[in-house]
Specification:
This protein is an alpha+beta fold. The strands form 6 sheets. The chain has a 5-stranded antiparallel beta sheet with strand order 5-6-9-8-17. Strands 7-18-19-16-15 form a 5-stranded antiparallel beta sheet. Helix 3 packs across helix 6 and helix 5 packs antiparallel against helix 10. The chain binds iron/sulfur cluster.
Length: 561
């Protein structure tokens, strides 16, 4: 291996490649005006929007498709340099986020359909975190995995190793369809209506293999809920597919398992997805989603980033026009069916995947707490060994920043639990740690007003020493209004904000919201406290939870309290 991070063979090839490369030779001429906006010599439009009205990010995409910046990744890598200007945004098409000034390095965001990983893949990701990253990885709220502190010289090898593992990071950032999520217990959940992993995987590959589905007006989220008792927050997605059973009916619809299509969830904008009246067979979900995305691509706002999500197109058009335009791109008609004629959905069991649970095939799965989603390399390697030795060689990630090990026979359960405990992790959900969710925060994200992960871990340790919980409670800490940790759906949600001390010093702090939930407990949390210094959140949350434990009736949930 050479000092550049490439093998000697790769370096020789690259040097020859770069010397023969006239970068940008095929690009349209772009100038920049006094404000740094790109200008074009010729009048052009992008999906009907004149080029001179495009947002900065749209101009960057128009200048060069983000998928085509591999040359930049390779050449910057050889020089161990970070990307500049528009390439910073284009790198995100490959899942590479240059996170300066928070850290002078890259963060890699993978994409893992349905959060399902083989132990071979999980081990490979651990090796990447060890060899090129900080010795740990972060599980995300899209059942995904991120590795930080990557140097430019290692980026190409990181992406090549991902491909070797059968994984990718393509389209996991920028204006693309993000990781497809699915119920984490699907395929072995005794209560589910259908195994949704094959559909999540088919959607994942459909998006990856269709170049026109990159470079949307803004990011786009899709999720599959299998109809059981475990939530995957599908109603927080642009498209949430919910499995339902349809019995005998007078609408002419064949009884069976279908999906309801919910649209326009975007909790950072305080909106859940809502049912649009459409009932789909499982196989129909992919062409319908593809048609709807193409309608969004052609008609979404490309001038104002704040109005560029699907929600704003649907706000303007309504469901009727949006679905009529979608139908024009399909070879079959949409099937409308009243929601109330579907069999009622099973209530969700909040945090019900943590601990030990029987599977539909007589085996068991164990839900492991990984507070705020951080797992060290030794823990990852040990979890992979446990899943191989006692389970079926698979690990499932959840949107709650925890993970599951499926396929454990009864007679191996105790040994598996002992081995999990030896990693320093736990399957026992008796403290707040199982429900702690935090975004990257100020240690790794330039937008953060607070150290969310650090504050969350300290809060979890503080509360664990003081109380035992017998009801699931989620606490979500998010560093800014982008709401990556979805504070509005937490029982207790916190959004980072800067607070002035009495001496005028700027301190980390939070606005605190209460009463959020998803699915059948759906609620946008309401703001109760503003500008609480981070140093005061421990006593405040402790008092709040003590008041709940002392005054609740019977087993009243925190949400009901
Ligand atoms: Fe960064 Fe804000 Fe997202 Fe947290 S919520 S990771 S601070 S962008």
């Amino acid at each position: 291996m050479s000092t550049s991070g490439f093998t000697n063979e790769q370096e020789t090839y690259l040097k020859a490649f770069i010397s023969g490369l006239n970068q940008g030779q095929n690009l349209p001429h772009l100038g920049q005006d006094a404000e740094g906006r790109f200008t074009h010599e010729e009048e052009e439009t992008v999906h009907g929007t004149p080029v001179d009205e495009l947002s900065r990010e749209e101009l960057i995409k128009h200048e060069q498709n983000g998928l085509d910046c591999w040359d930049a990744i390779m050449t910057n890598g050889l020089r161990n340099e970070f990307p500049k200007d528009g390439d910073i945004f284009r790198y995100k098409f490959h899942g590479l986020f240059y996170v300066a000034p928070a850290q002078d390095s890259f963060m890699l965001r993978c994409r893992i359909a349905g959060g399902a990983l083989s132990t071979y893949q999980f081990r490979g990701l651990a090796e990447m975190a060890q060899d090129w990253g900080p010795g740990h990885a972060d599980l995300t709220t899209r059942a995904n995995l991120q590795i930080r502190e990557l140097e430019p010289k290692n980026c190409a090898n990181v992406l090549m190793k991902l491909a070797d593992l059968g994984l990718t990071s393509q389209g996991s950032g920028a204006d693309n369809v993000r990781n497809i999520t699915a119920t984490p217990t699907t395929g072995f959940d005794p209560d589910e209506l259908i195994d949704v992993l094959p559909y999540a995987r088919a959607m994942h590959y459909y998006i990856l293999k269709n170049r026109d589905l990159y470079g949307l007006p803004r990011k786009f989220n899709i999720s599959y809920d299998s109809g059981g008792g475990i939530s995957t927050c599908a109603d927080t997605n642009d498209i949430g597919f919910y499995a339902v059973r349809v019995g005998e009916n007078d609408e002419g619809v064949e009884p069976g398992v279908y999906f309801r299509m919910q649209l326009c969830g975007i909790t950072g904008h305080e909106q859940f997805a809502s049912d649009c009246g459409v009932l789909l067979t499982p196989a129909e979900t992919i062409p319908v989603a593809a048609a709807l995305m193409r309608v969004f691509i052609e008609n979404g706002d490309r001038t104002n980033r704040k109005k560029a999500r699907l929600k704003y197109l649907v706000d303007e058009w309504g469901f009727d026009k949006t679905l009529a335009e979608t139908e024009k791109k399909m070879t079959f008609d949409l099937r409308y069916f009243p929601l109330e004629k579907c069999e009622p959905a099973k209530p969700k069991d909040k945090q019900g995947y943590l601990g030990i649970h029987p599977q539909s095939d007589g085996l068991n799965y164990v839900g492991v707490l990984t507070p705020v989603g951080r797992v060290t390399v030794p823990q990852m390697l040990a979890l992979a060994d446990i899943a191989d030795e006692f389970g079926r060689g698979e690990i499932r990630l959840t949107v709650w920043q925890n993970l599951l090990i499926p396929g454990i026979p009864d007679d191996k359960l105790q040994d598996a639990l002992t081995a999990i405990q030896a990693t320093g992790l736990s399957h026992q959900n008796s403290t707040i740690k199982g429900g702690l969710i935090a975004c990257t925060g100020s240690r790794g994200c330039k937008y953060a007003a607070a150290d969310t992960k650090g504050n969350a871990v300290d809060l979890g340790n503080h509360l664990a020493d003081r109380m035992i919980l017998d009801q699931p409670i989620n606490i979500h800490l998010t560093g800014c209004h982008h709401s990556c940790a979805q504070h509005y759906i937490g029982d207790i949600g916190m959004m980072g904000t800067k607070v002035k001390s009495e001496s005028g010093e700027s301190l980390d702090g939070y606005n605190i919201v209460l009463g959020g939930g998803v699915d059948d407990q759906q609620a946008i949390a309401r703001e109760i406290w503003k500008s609480i210094p981070a140093t005061e959140i421990q006593p405040l949350v402790e008092k709040l939870l003590c008041a709940y434990l002392a005054n609740r009736e019977d087993n009243e949930s925190f949400a009901a309290f």
